[in-house]
Amino acid sequence: NDTLGHAAGDHVLEQVARIMVGITRDEDIIARVGGDEFVMVFQGLCDHRRIEDLAQRLISQLELPMRWQGQECRISASAGTTMSTDYNHPDPARMLADADHALYAAKNAGRSRHQFYEPAAPKAGA
After folding, report:
1. Over the stretch 28-63, which tens digit does the pLDDT of each residue have?
2. Rounded Cα distance, 52 and 37, in Å
């Protein structure tokens, strides 16, 4: 958006959506929740290794240059994941907040990373 304008940004978002649809199954859900933030829900997928593989494949594909009007657009992506199986009573709002914490942990560790949510350890005496 800043360099090539909003039309280029819209094109990049369309390509991002196409890539996400390409790595998901029909029963999965993809939702755009902010300017450049998306939520992906993988129905019945509880294998950490498979999710890590999907996240790394998504990140790698999003880093490939995208062409728009003869210009090359490059983006990076980070991802945060939480698993419904990690909760006694999964609450979508809490899971979304926890996934967001994992996302920011991934971003703080550097670009193009994926991080599973890890609850903070209880403090001694708490």
Report:
1. 999 999 888 999 999 999 999 999 999 999 999 999
2. 18
Strand 114-116 versus strand 71-73 pairing type: unpaired
Catalytic residue among 2, 10, 28, 36: 36
Instruction: Return the C-alpha torsion angle 41, 42, 43, 49, nearest 10.
Output: -150
Spatial CB neighbours of 58, under 8 Å, sequence gap ≥ 6: 19, 20, 23, 77, 79
Active site residue 36: yes
What's the CA dihedral at 12, 107, 48, 119 to 10 degrees? Answer: -140
Half-sphere exposure of 104 (CA within 13 A, CB side): 5
CA-CA distances (angstroms) from residue 98 to 11, 12, 26, 71, 124? 30, 27, 25, 37, 22
